[in-house]
Amino acid sequence: MNTDYIIAIEASIAAGKVIMEIYQKDFQIDFKNDNSPLTEADIAANAVIMEYLNQTGIPIISEENKQTPYSIRKNWISCWIVDPLDGTKEFVKKNGEFTVNIALVKNGLPEFGVIYVPATGVLYFGDVSRQKAYRITIDHSNYTISDILKNASEIQPQQNLNTIRVVGSRSHMNQETLDFVENLRQKSQQEIEMVSKGSSLKFCLVADGNADVYPRFAPTMEWDTAAGQAICMSVGLKVIDNTTNLAMKYNKESLLNSFFLVSNEL
Hints:
Layout: H1 3-23, E1 29-31, E2 37-39, H2 40-53, E3 60-62, H3 70-73, E4 78-86, H4 88-93, E5 99-106, E6 109-117, E7 122-127, E8 132-137, H5 145-151, E9 153-154, E10 163-169, H6 175-188, E11 191-197, H7 201-207, E12 213-216, H8 222-234, E13 238-241, E14 260-263
Parallel strand pairs: 3-4, 10-11
Antiparallel strand pairs: 1-2, 4-5, 5-6, 6-7, 7-8, 8-9, 12-14, 13-14
């Protein structure tokens, strides 16, 4: 496997270890200008990830970094896009549904993505060029990269013939999503099952066959979605920007995403 990809996997696990150390104690919660929560785990995980990714010499966009001006970023061919702790609300609620997201983007499209779930030790990673994505459960205090690469199971989406499983957010369900679900019900004449998950795990549910479609009609940033899109693209799923009707792109002038849809054929 590409050395940079291995570094990203190692960074995600190391960040997850730091996150869990903070998760298991009392921690302070601050709030950003947009009222989203910020904890010491976000900051600590970001520091760990930066230490790893700086080894690659590839520039980095991270939620917890001061953003580089677009006048400079627009000249980047490749960059990392990082959310050190995706699902901070889930972290604060202590429901375990938070992740570390790291993606490598080239010419605006994801090439590789890793999503690590610190509370459960579940690790997903996908290589778009090889059209392969994997899942493995690890012990973050006792693992080797060679064991991960040897023992990870390949994942694939699966269509359910009787029911369409729609992923919804634990924190961001809204009327537009409900309208989409009702339209899908009428068009398909099939039963609809709602599956709720926090953070980037929603992408993983579709990629590994536990859901069929993920509509997102609420704001997200590039670091929320890049790793999940890489994993989905690695198993042949489409992640479509509702504004352009093309694959979602990254390192844009605005790091705010359009609404989007993750699906196989829908």
